[in-house]
Design goal:
The complex is a heterodimer of chains A (382) and B (130).
Chain A lengths: L3 E8 L10 H15 L7 E5 L3 H5 L4 H8 L6 E5 L5 H14 L6 E8 L6 H6 L14 H16 L3 H15 L13 H6 L2 E4 L1 E2 L8 E10 L11 E10 L14 H14 L8 E3 L5 H10 L11 H4 L15 H5 L3 H16 L13 E8 L4 E9 L1
Parallel strand pairs in A: 2-3, 2-4, 9-10
Antiparallel strand pairs in A: 1-7, 1-8, 4-7, 5-6, 8-11, 10-11
Chain B lengths: L2 H6 L1 H6 L1 E5 L5 E2 L14 E5 L3 E10 L12 E7 L5 E6 L12 E12 L4 E10 L2
Antiparallel strand pairs in B: 1-2, 1-3, 4-5, 4-7, 5-6, 7-8
Bound molecules: zinc ion.
Amino acid sequence: MREVAIVSAGMTRFGELWESSLRDLFAEAALEALAAAKVDRLDSIVVGCMSGGQFVGQEHIGPLMADQIGMAGVAATHVESACASGGVALRTAFLEVASGASDLVLAAGVEKMTDGADVTAVLATAADQELEAFHGITFPGLYAMIARAHMQANGTTEEDLAWVAVKNHRHGALNPKAQFAREVKLEEVMKSSMVSDPLRLLCCSPVSDGAAAVLLCPLEHAKRYTDHPVKIRGTGLATSTMALADRKDPAFLDAVQLSGERAYKMAGVGPADIQVAEVHDCFAIAEICCIEALGLVEKGAGRHAARTGLTALGGKIPVNTSGGLKSKGHPVGATGIAQAIEIFEQLRGGAGARQVKGARIGLAQNMGGSGASSVVHVFEGV
Amino acid sequence: MPSPRNWREIPARYRLEAARCRGCGKVVYPARRACPACRGQEFEKTMLSWKGKVVTSTVVQVAPTEFQMEAPYAVAIVETPEGARLMTQVVDCDPGAVQPGMEVALVFRLIRREGHGGILCYGFKAVPAA
Ligand SMILES: [Zn+2]
């Protein structure tokens, strides 16, 4: 396999972007990525999107998006893995370049969630329809059950969850593209309304519109497009049981562990080598479970990481410097690419006020459903 | 959801029909073609007990549109004595009192109405064990 680099990125602001349609969002991010690399041709486009069909009644997104950026004729594919669609799009693009099949591939993610669809119902289609959604469970509900199991096993508290939100909002306040670029106080989080016990509103990521795109090419071509490419050293994708009930330990995200192990192995690194990470904090409990499953902290120790500052900017292993899904926003299909962009900028020294000094190796982890799919990438600044 | 979809699920939802793998003995609920533990494809039909224990749970305050009239309600993962786990609402009690370890009985109840025709979909809910 060839070595692969990211050479440019483009991203919309995340938020309730009423003036932009699904296609507008994609085009804005994609054209920014192409312009940054001064590229006017592509071999292929891979678009991650959870559900254009349900959110705005639009399927067949591959050709639509190619056409929107004046690239009708180019190979274009839509990939879906619920909230992990963006991460899976990056992996698909990576494999296409690594294999030698294509030289210039745009990996993008997009979601338009605020055009009036029943968002709770659409998101619930990423759960098992016959065994879970049928009984009236929601996504916050599924993660609340994970949280309660984690509390039972590890003594995790509501305050531990709230600290994750406080930390990520502190990071997001430094991110001009974040949907909620402001700090929140611990008491505000603890007093926010209950969505699904024990998860409160401020422990949940918001409903968002947005798009993100990165341009991939063989590492040996990278300097044609940028002075500061970032190499993709490893990719790992894994699945778990679809129904949360079928997991031996509902508090442990085994697909996250497996996807991490696969990415670490391919990259030839371990958790101790990671200097900055973006993980899938769709709910506060998810960040705690993910950093444990990725080995960034010991199993059971995840609950302390945000409060002690271990995972805060300036800490040993800063997690979600972008603000995470919590503060930056979570346009589901775009999230995996946006995470990669944060690491891309961190590893080339372009993260501004959020910069982790001297970061050379970083990781992004993107999750689908209640953890039935997870994709991890390990990156290195070169 | 068209009605054949509901009809297909009747054995599992009305009678708690499950399948026991002839290869490894795992009880799979609901029945499926391949055993998730050993990938065996030979099963015998078995019935789950109408009781179990809460593994984990939540109280849904913000409910999907179809369930809004019922909120807040408890939803739990319940493990039956056969080792099968299923997701279900826990009713006839204070939803806040539902916690891991709680013993429950499963009872036949109306779960939801399906589609514009409002077809009634029945199944099971959990109640506190007597
Ligand atoms: Zn078996």
